[in-house]
Amino acid sequence: MKKIIFTLFLGMMANFAFPQSYHKLIRENTYWDEYMVVMPEIWCYTSAKRIFFTNQDTLINGLTYKISKEQIISPLNPGPFCPPLVIDTASNLTYQFLREDTVEKKVYIYTPAYGGTGSDQLFYDFSLLPGDTLQSSYTGMGALLVLDSIVTIVLNNGETRKEFSFTPNYPSAFNYIEGIGGSFGLFDPIPVGFAEWYGGYFCVKENSVNLYGEQCDYGYVGQNEMKTEPVSVFPNPANNFITVVMPRDYEGSDFILFNLRGVQVFRHRLNSGSGTFSVSGLVPGIYNYQIKSNQSIHNGKLAIY
To answer: pLDDT digits over 113-131, tens only?
Structure first.
């Protein structure tokens, strides 16, 4: 009995002296290839993107954040079925600002408020235990989420990570993985209630090693540079009106806006190479836009204040 107690004591001391290592979410040598599907268009991906962190910092309201970038992943030839995808590695857009407290095991996101100063919101909390709650204005749209369970999963390369599963009092559930992100995407807020969209990962790679995702060997076409003609959407941020200038390939196309949940909120027909129209009826915030014709698709982000 004394030997058993001593063995248990040594095990407890070892766990205390050498706690399980924390796997950072924000790191520069990793990229996240994500997709999003709006329910009426489940025959193919509505949009896709590659996200990565730079070595740049930005100071906002006295707090230091890491800058993430987004590269667009588009169908090579739009059509009724999912065609090969091409990654625009020649250009990128500033996407989101995150900061990580590796001691508290928490990740925070800066959410802009146009006309205001914005705010720092709790995004991920990897210190929670089953039964704990998670609540912030960003995650779950302010709903109180309860951590249902923590399980250990095995990544594609054999490493293990903690997976946190939440149970809101709604039909949908959500989980996120330490060092990987949320089940709907790295930056997608936790959905509550009926979601008209869903998202996920083609692949998460670190130092070219496949960590997570079922399509890490997806045959992307055009890894170097996507050949596109310039499309301009301005002003950005916009207030009452926006102007779209585009090449001939896009004439007769639709300008579509999606909110961050992937729900279409605006559509305007573009019958010529340029056009100016009103967006004054939209709620201030950040939107994903898509200019879609029979030959081409152009994606981007538009801020409205």
So the answer is: 654 567 888 999 999 999 9
Give me the phi and psi of 40, to 5 degrees please: -65, -15
Other Cβ atoms within 10 Å of 183 Cβ, number: 20
- Lowest-pLDDT range of 5-14, 46-55, 188-197: 5-14
10 Å CB burial of residue 232 (0-12, 13-18, 19+) is exposed
Q: Which amino acid is residue 120, in one-letter code?
A: D
Phi, psi dihedral angles at 294 (to 5 degrees) = -70, -20
CA 299 to chain CA centroid, Å, is: 15
Answer yes or no: are the C-beta atoms of 48 and 215 closer than 8 Å. no
Ramachandran assignment for 222, one of left (phi > 0), alpha (psi -120 to 50 degrees), beta (any other): left
Q: What is the pTM of this model?
A: 0.68
Instruction: Kindly report the number of other CB atoms within 10 A of residue 201's CB atom.
Output: 22
Q: What is the pLDDT of residues 269-282, one digit of tens each?
A: 887 767 888 988 88
What are the structural domains of the chain?
A: 30-212 (no CATH), 232-304 (2.60.40.10)
What does the alpha-carbon distance between residue 291 and residue 228 come to, in Å, rounded to a whole number? Answer: 13
Element (H, E) at 55: strand 47-60
Query: What average pLDDT does the segment 17-24 reach?
Result: 68
The token pair at 109 is 């996101």
Q: How far apart are the C-alpha atoms of 117 and 111, rounded to whole Å?
A: 9
